[in-house]
Amino acid sequence: xxxxxxxxxxxxxxxxxxxxxxxxxxxxxxxxxxxxxxxxxxxxxxxxxxxxxxxxxxxxxxxxxxxxxxxxxxxxxxxxxxxxxxxxxxxxxxxxxxxxxxxxxxxxxxxxxxxxxxxxxxxxxxxxxxxxxxxxxxxxxxxxxxxxxxxxxxxxxxxxxxxxxxxxxxxxxxxxxxxxxxxxxxxxxxxxxxxxxxxxxxxxxxxxxxxxxxxxxxxxxxxxxxxxxxxxxxxxxxxxxxxxxxxxxxxxxxxxxxxxxxxxxxxxxxxxxxxxxxxxxxxxxxxxxxxxxxxxxxxxxxxxxxxxxxxxxxxxxxxxxxxxxxxxxxxxxxxxxxxxxxxxxxxxxxxxxxxxxxxx
Length: 360
Description:
The chain is α/β, with parallel strands linked by helices. The protein has helices at 5-14, 45-53, 58-67, 107-110, 115-118, 137-151, 186-193, 209-220, 234-243, 250-260, 289-296, 303-309, 318-327, 333-339; strands at 18-22, 28-31, 34-37, 69-76, 80-89, 92-101, 125-130, 155-160, 173-178, 200-203, 224-229, 261-271, 278-286.
């Protein structure tokens, strides 16, 4: 048993999502969104480095020593998997570990809208899950892939950095590939995937122009592609994808994206006030013919109106989802206000509305 495993056991016992080990500071956990210090000595750089290297593959140590950054997966059988990131900082080495539960929660267990389950059975197209870091994108994606695994008889390929949720083949054949271990990059894995008879492709993150271009191409040539971006709304996601391309290519990409896109899910996590857990508010954009036309005609500013009028298709605005969580007694008014897009709608819920400089 590695010395660091005691921290992972504590992390699991406390229900923490992340473990922070930073030279020059006490260890800390992120519990229900908040950082909490562990009652432990300030970590010394040399002893922390020794502790970290005990669980680090040799090739990853080499990368870290050369670049100052590295990602990899670590697993404690019977406990959980961990997405590990090492980095250099002012006082020495630092590391953050995100716990990836060994069991995959279903869409129903996560309390997500039923339309999310339907995405798993789409025949083709591009589905994008967006949100800030730590908003539960990987958990939502895992639930969708699990649904596809149970309902379909197809070939699923996942490409991640590192591998997070591990799926056991059920109705589908599933192949997990890790960037840096099984393939050089997301783009090279995507190029290879198109020759590997896939039906469903999960791309952990659309990081660059080439990866985005290949994902759109795969979605347009008969594959169902799931991926993530770090954006805050459905409309901004569409804009972000198009703006990555050179100006002279944007009109063509806008048309290709309009044809290939199937859904955009933007989500935000909240601390529940009625239970020791968290819940997600989702903005859902479904690519109806009207939505496709807005994307094709560069009228993404009108997508919010389409989401308001498209409720029968499962669409919803983020603020409507937040208000629903508030009305059901799941979240508090302060956090609802803090994470809402149109804050004026939530100000009447506050006992002492702040002077919000962001609305000046």
